[in-house]
Amino acid sequence: MRTNTIAGPLVAALLLTACSSGEPSPAPGSKGTVHIDIHGWVGYEAQAAVLAYLLEHELGYDVKKRKMKEEDSWKDFGTGKVDVIVENWGHNDLKKKYIEDEKVAISAGLTGNKGVIGWYVPQWMVKQYPDITNWRSLNKYSSLFRTAKSGNSGQVLDGDPSFVTYDEALVKNLGLDYRVVYSGSEDALIKAAQTATKNRKPVLMYFYEPQWLFTKVKLVKINLPAYSIGCDAVAAKVACDYPPYLLDKIVSRSFAATGGRAYDLVRNFTWTNDNQNAVASDMINGKMTADQAAKKWVDENKIVWQDWIPR
Known about the structure:
Layout: H1 9-20, E1 33-38, H2 42-57, E2 62-67, H3 70-75, E3 84-88, H4 92-101, E4 105-122, H5 123-128, E5 154-158, H6 167-173, E6 178-182, H7 186-198, E7 205-209, E8 219-221, E9 245-252, H8 253-258, H9 260-268, H10 273-284, H11 290-300, H12 302-305
Helix pairs in contact: 2-10, 2-11, 10-11
């Protein structure tokens, strides 16, 4: 059970006075516990790490992290096992179920990130096959993407099946000679992109931004049929590109009501793709732990996060 307490006006004033006079921040755990679920991509973990660091070191909360698949997290909003999902990609079906119908969750505002999902190929392939970014040309090049798992069809490499994807419907409805193969994780997608770039090996893959990989590897997005409002309303009939995503934070309704300054911090949090990629890159390329990368970013970016701290 979450044990958050809400400081009264006098205590809050004393804390503000202590902070302004240079005294130490409250000890982690002194204000209660916040439960944050961790989903399966490094950008999410980077954002969760920064929020957790500020909750602990600036506000004095204890943070408990739990690795979960996206849908399973939503199921626990009503049980008290999760307070915060820090980065949500759409999921209108889950919003309807848990926010509108069951009323156990609410949106806590945008993260500031601009989310993009699509199909990508290495930049070298675009130079060699200039029309490959036009989806109508993909069947002409399907043989380049054949693998043992895709058989006589080209392969579209996806990540974890729980990620936001309607690639199987796209392949079918656009009449493409391809087969969707699930790699199982973000790590597998990243390795595929790195190998394809280094060894000039063809790959057509599902991927997304923000993602630190774009600072290291050049990928080019395929121009699928343009997205229009409602074109993805029926998953089985989708024949358009993914929509642009304004990513948001989802919290349990009980956390919003009783979480006090912890909830205020989550609600106030907003940053950029570049901010997230910097933390994620330190985790992957700098071999830092999530906590170390978060501390580095917090130490270097007070001008960004100081306004998130509730007064």
